[in-house]
Amino acid sequence: MESTTQVGVIGLGLMGSALAARLSDAGVGVIGYDIDAARKEGLSARGAEFAAFATEVAARCQTIVIAVYDAAQIMALLPDLANATAPPLLICTTTCAPDEIAAIAEFAARSHLAFIEAPISGTSAEVRSGTATALVAGEPDTIEAAAETLDILCPWRVNVGAIGNASRTKLAINLILQSNRAALAEGIVFAESLGLDGLSFLASARHSAAYSAVMDSKGPKMLAQDFSPQSHIAQTLKDAELILREAGRQGLSLPMTSAQADLLRTTIALHGPTCDSAAVIEAIRAGRRLNKEGP
Cα-flanking dihedrals φ and ψ of residue 231, to 5°? Predict the structure, then answer.
C-alpha cells in the first residue's frame, strides 16, 4: 500500500487502537476518530492524525475501519459517512447480531458505501501481534478491493461468504471461547482447592487433552490476578447476551452460556466493566468464599 494512502479508523478503544497500530506500523497514514477525545494522545504517539469529526475521516479516506462498540453506534455513524463526496469502503469489525449487520449492510448499499463485515476473533494483544483472525463476509470484488488493508490488519483471515455469515460465525466461536474461559477459571480454582499449585497445574493442563488456547492467553493473567484489559469484560457480556438472544430466536436453550453470562455479570459487579475477561475467575473464587463461610 502506498504511504500516501490514508486509512480511517473510527472507534479507538482497545481493538480500534490495535488496528490503528497495525496500519501505522506498516507505514500507512491513519486518521482516527472517537467520541472520546482523550484517545487522541495514543493515536498521536504513533504519528497518526485525530479527526474532529467522523465526516472529516470520510472526506479524506477511501477506506475506513469501523471498530465501535455495537450496531447502534454504527447506524448512527453511517449517515455522516454516506455524505462524503466519494463514499468510502467500510470494513466493519464490530461484533453484531446477524439481523443488525444485515440492516447496516442494506443502509450502506442504499448509500453507495462499499461494505465488508470483518469481526475479529482474538484479543487486542493478538491483533497487535498479527495472530488474530478476521472473519470476512461480503461481495468478492469488495473484499478484493480491501485486500491490502485486510492483509495488514489481520494476516490471518477466513472468508465465510455472504454478509451475516461473519456475525453468525463470530457468535458461535465466541460461545465456545467464553465457555472455555469459564471452564479454565473453574478448573484453576478447583485445582487450588485440592492443594495444587496453580502454575504447576496450568503447565500440566497445557499438555493435556483439555488444552485450549485460552490457557495461553488468559491462564497466566488469572493466576497473577492481572486484569488489565486486553478486552473489556462488558464487551464479553454484550456478546454473550447477543448469543443468548439469537439462540432464543431459534428456540434453542444454551445452559452453559447462560451460566457463564451470570458469571460475567457477577465479575462486573466485583471489578467493574473495563477489567479483562480473565477476571471471571474472581466470580468463582467469590462463590467459593461464600460457600466456605456459610449462612
Answer: -155, 150
How far is it, in rounded angstroms, from Cα 133 to Cα 155?
A: 8
How would you classify residue 164: left for phi > 0, otherwise alpha for psi between -120 and 50, otherwise beta? left
Q: Which of 192, 191, 178 is nearest to 262 (CA)?
A: 178
Task: Quick: pLDDT tens for 106-124.
Answer: 999 999 999 999 999 999 9
How confident is the model over 7-61, as pLDDT tens digits?
999 999 999 999 999 999 999 999 999 999 888 887 887 889 999 999 999 999 9
Contact present, 178 and 95 (Cβ < 8 Å):
no
Three-state secondary structure call for residue 63:
strand
Torsion angle of C-alpha atoms 281, 263, 173, 101, degrees rounded to 10: -130
* Cross-strand bridge partners of residue 65: 9, 91
Nearest residue to 14 (alpha-carbon basis) of 292, 285, 280, 274: 274
Instruction: Give the global pTM.
Output: 0.91
